[in-house]
Sequence to fold (231 residues):
Amino acid sequence: MTMVSIQTNLKRVHERIQRACAACDRDVSTVRLLAVSKTKPWELVRQAIEAGQRDFGENYLQDALLKIAASGEYRPIWHYIGAIQSNKTRDIAERFDWIHTVASEKIARRLNDQRPPDLPRLNALIQVNINDEAGKAGVTESALPTLIERMLPCQRIRLCGLMAIPEQTTDTARQRENFARLADLGRAMATRFGLVEFSELSMGMSDDLEAAIAEGATWVRIGTAIFGVRQ
Ligand SMILES: *Cc1c(COP(=O)(O)O)cnc(C)c1O
Fold:
C-alpha cells in the first residue's frame, strides 16, 4: 500500500462534504465529520488531529482506551460507535463524550448511572435497525418510542438523536430512501416527545456520505476515506 496522507484524505473528504452540501443548499457547518479510527494506530489519529480533525469514532473498547490514554493533551472528542455489552458501559460512560449506539433501556440506564457527576452529560444517539435486518444492531422502528420514553428520566444523558447503518446498496435512490426514513423518524420522535434537542442524525459512511447529507445527516462517520482500508 502506498503511504496514506491523512491530511490529503481529510481535505478530500471535506471537499466531498462541501460539494454535497452545495448540491442540497445546506450550510456546511451543519454537517460534522466523525473520523472513524477503529483498528488504526494512535499515530494516525495524531496526524489527523494535527490536520485539524477533532472528533474520532471507535468501535472496539480496549483498542480505543489505549488511544484515549495516548491522546492526553490533544484532547480530541471521542465517540463510541460500536456494539455495547453491559460490562463495557462503565468505561464508555467515563471515557467518551458521545455514544451513537444505544439500543436498549438496560444499557441506557447503566450509562446514566455510571456517568461521572463531574463530567458533562453523555451525548447519546439511539441506533435504529432501519431496514429490519436480521442480526443487525439497533432497535426496530416500532420499539423506538418505548426506548425514548424509558430514557427520558436519565438525567446524565443528553438524548440528542438517531443513528443508523442502513442495508448495503450502491443504488443511490435506495440509500436516500433509507436515510430519509431515519430523518423522518427523528422528526416524528422529537414532535411526539416534545424534545427540543433531538436533532442529530448520525448517518453516512465513506461510500454513501452524499446521500446521507442530502437527507439531513448532521454527523457523517468516515473511516476508509480518511485512514485507508482496514486489514
Ligand atoms: C467502521 C464504521 C464506519 C466507517 O466506515 P467506512 O466505510 O470505513 O467509512 C462508520 N460507522 C460505523 C458504525 C462503523 O462501524
The mean pLDDT is 97. The two ends are 11 Å apart (CA to CA).
